[in-house]
Amino acid sequence: MKKALVTGATGFLGWHACMALQSRGWTVTGLGRNPEAGAKLEAKGVLFVRGDLRDEGAVSRACAGQDAVFHCGALSSPWGRYREFHDINVDGTRHVVQGCQRHDVKRLIHISTPSIYFDHTRDRLNVAENAELPAKQANAYAATKLLAEEVVFDSLQNGQEGLILRPRAIFGPMDTALLPRLMRANETSGVPLFRKGDILLDLTYVDNVVEAMLLGWEAPSEALGQAYNITNGEPARLGDVLAELFDMLGVRLNTREIPYPVAFGAAALMEWSHRLLPFLGEPKLTRYSVGVLARSGTLDIAKARQQLGYAPRISLHEGLKRFADWWSAGGQ
């Protein structure tokens, strides 16, 4: 029986990866920080190890005896201290890589992000893996995930089997970030819209990402050592996605059209004040979030289709329906 370690197992993607691997006969160990979610994993037959990516020893011990490591763990947020992002996303990834090397893990599947392609100052459509990157990354998350890729690529060039996936805007049941953020905005001040919602974006249903991870395990040698874009392969207008989602939820869509310069300036002011007064937490608006909602950004997934055999199984419509059904049932 094959053995796998999933980092970030108590998070959104990591949880789904654990469930999928177990359903396919793997013996699964989940590394995570949330003991309540860990107890739920254990109730489903996953061996839960409470640990932090910043703890080199804990990560190394979790890698021992594994055939594969699926590195989903990361600090993913539009706001926060750079040092914390670096400690988790860069140093944490280095600990995973070192654990794989120390314990002869056969294959490492590293989850990165296509956020590295976008500074959100302009539209970028059909972006391929070899596209030119911005001179400056959009935020600390993107900057540290790019550095983490460098750590992984270095290991892949020095004997470690594996590859990197860059899934875009993951959504589905148990999502606490992407769609729920928009839904909270809808309940309060309204979802901010720019260009009347006429921007193109890619989303990726979580099960499709997990399928890509499993394809990474099965990938032939010639497909290894590379990065792959992953999406649903269905670029859609933001306005259309919102309308469909809220119709499924039976909730009135509350939007507000804001001129981009006004929103960008307000976001910059909020960021300044929240840096000055850290106890305020995350600003309601950041320049990054304004850019995400105001600029088109889509990916080319031809490489994943051709080299990994990736074919999204769950459509955007079906994925939105599954999320809406889960949310309407209580979102647990």
TrEMBL record:
Gene3D superfamilies in the record: NAD(P)-binding Rossmann-like Domain (3.40.50.720)
One GO CC term on file: cytoplasm
Record-level Gene Ontology MF annotations: aldehyde dehydrogenase (NAD+) activity
Domain NAD-dependent epimerase/dehydratase: 4-230
Any one Pfam family match given in the protein's UniProt record, by short name: Epimerase
InterPro entries: Epimerase_deHydtase, NAD(P)-bd_dom_sf, NAD(P)-dependent_oxidoreduct
PANTHER family reported in the protein's UniProt record: NAD(P)-BINDING DOMAIN-CONTAINING PROTEIN-RELATED, PROTEIN YEEZ
Protein's UniProt name: 3-beta hydroxysteroid dehydrogenase
Organism annotation: Paenibacillus oryzae
Lineage: Bacteria, Bacillati, Bacillota, Bacilli, Bacillales
